[in-house]
Amino acid sequence: FSINNLTLMALTLAIGFLVDDAIVFLENVIRRAEHGESILKASYNTAGEISFTILSMTLSLAAVFIPLVLLPGLLGRIFQEFSITIIVAILASGLVSLTLTPLMCARILGERRAGHKRTRMEKWTGDFIQRVIGAYGRALDKFLDRAWLTIPILLGCILGLWFFFTHLPFTLLPPGDSGFARGVFIAQEGSSPEQMRAFQKLVNQKIQAEPSVDKFFTLAGSASRSSLSQAIIFCIFKPREQRDPIEQCLLRLQRSINTIPGLTAIITPSPVLQINVGATNQTQGQYAYTVSGIVPQDVYGAANQMMTSLRGFKGFASVRSDYYNSTPNLKIDIDRERAATYGVSTSAIQSLLKNAYSQNYVYLIKQPDDQYQVILEVKDNERAQPRDLDNLYVRSNTGSPINQSGGGTGIGAITTTTGTSSDLVPMRAVTSTSQVVGPQAVNHFDQFTSVTINFNLLPGVAIGDATKFIEDSFVQVHQQFPGVQATFQGEALVFRQLFRALPLLLLAAIFVMYVILGILYESYVHPITVLFPAIVPAVVGGLFTLWIFGSTLSLYSVIGLFLLLGIVKKNGIMVVDFALQRIDEGWDLRSAIHEASMERFRPIMMTTLAALMGAIPIALGFGQDAASRRPLGLVIVGGLIFSQLITLFVTPVIYLWLEWFQEHVLDKVPFLRSAHYHDEGQPGRGQLRPEPAAVH
Fold this sequence. Notes:
Layout: H1 5-18, H2 20-34, H3 39-63, H4 66-69, H5 73-108, H6 120-145, H7 150-167, E1 180-186, H8 193-208, E2 213-220, E3 230-237, H9 246-257, E4 264-269, E5 287-293, H10 296-310, E6 316-321, E7 327-334, H11 336-341, H12 346-357, E8 361-367, E9 370-375, E10 393-395, E11 424-426, H13 427-430, E12 431-438, E13 444-445, E14 448-457, H14 463-480, E15 484-489, H15 490-521, H16 526-548, H17 555-584, H18 589-599, H19 601-620, H20 626-664
Antiparallel strand pairs: 1-3, 1-4, 2-3, 5-14, 5-15, 6-14, 7-12, 8-9, 10-11, 13-14
């Protein structure tokens, strides 16, 4: 692995929740010390009391990212470095919290026994926290008396999931401002190299006149057959504080270049995370859709209909294809019978044309310090017109002379190093030429004739809406051309793969967490108590925040959702662990869960605030190209806040309901019995209420 955008983002996000384990341990030490224990004893007792909680939090959080690590294909390569970086950081944090943190607490913390002098800040914050905890305890009592409210709350969250997943726009990478853009300017088909060089000079002048551009580079006349009438543009813009947003800069630049008669410019901002796969190079557009088939006429007909349909969608900034069928061509027909008469082979004619016009090197000169390509070609001024073909001669295998006119002499006056001129046959003697209009190149995809349609989106238009429109359009085209198939390429292809796999990935992450928590708790219901009341409100809160801020569900948003799955369930783990300990001490169910919720309120708020502080800078959009990463921060901040408000009240109710279900239903089946199952005739769990423990 390397230090890149994904691994650095993983480390940045990890800062917010890596301290959670240490916070939980430290808070419990302080709480026990405030109840009269020495720091050494409090650290020792906390290690026995909290270790299982930290282990559960660490393993379940790391488990969220296991499905991402095992994801195949390009998506797996995108997520792998990010996921493994976070997993290693989480496991290291848990190890430190179970080993080094107890030692540091025992040696560094001061005594907190009754009567010790507190600073003014400690006194103010302590009193404030106690008032908040007291208010929460009273509110929780009232909510437990009205437990039925949990049902409409959770139903509302489930409906919210459906609403936001169906109404939020989807995109792969949100638009950002990396300060770099690339594109093409396209001239009329059949434009000569001289015309392209003249256009290039005009375009350079337009780019130089744009004040936001710092550096630029244009390239015309590349070796690609399909880009003879195109040229490439690369622009590096000035720092963000010295210019307008990159979308405005590109809009001005495109309008300026498009004022040149005969030219069309397409320039798009380049994201920091570039995804380029399939039959597209993204020069004509950020997204691509390839139509292919066996019969070329069907492919071209379907592509033309698709182009007509796509131009009717108002969300496209530009729509282009790589099929140019109006390019002037010079068609050369070989008279095979006459060529055979003169001893000229077809391969000799083809080889002559290749060496004359392809600019291919025929020999490599190697020297001790360098090597040089020997390129054989006809001079530019001798290949500008179709009649220049008459100046080419092909060697005959028989050496038969050719009398080019009735009374004239043959070609015998010219002597070469390899033979006399009687060995050479003029090209016009064995070929005929005609000027036709045809395709500039015949492209292929998976060995089939293909046409790739490139498109860019207007600001605020999501790729999800565009792909749906394209698929609906192709359904109609396919009825007329059933032998044609189509598929997305590049970012559009990865987008489809990601959001088709998203539900399965989320379910896989939840299932892995359920299995790990089930093993640790030795229970079927306690993992549900931890996961369900936390995950559903968190996801709804994250999606609601995206909707409020007009953002999109993107690759970064998906990463934020997976982080939410791991972070929010920590609240339930802390509450359930303490409730189980209180029940083992003999508390009744309601008193145990109420006491556990109040005892764990302070560390829950501390861990939530720590995660919020780690995500707020991303949500506010600080740093280069921060706009593209902003949805990630919005998902985490909104999900944490909304989940916190819900789970503090819903989790205790779900715990009571599932405990009743465990004892009255599941414990009747031997295979489904809890590890805390009591024998017949003994009091059930939570049926006794002894005196509370000395420290709780």
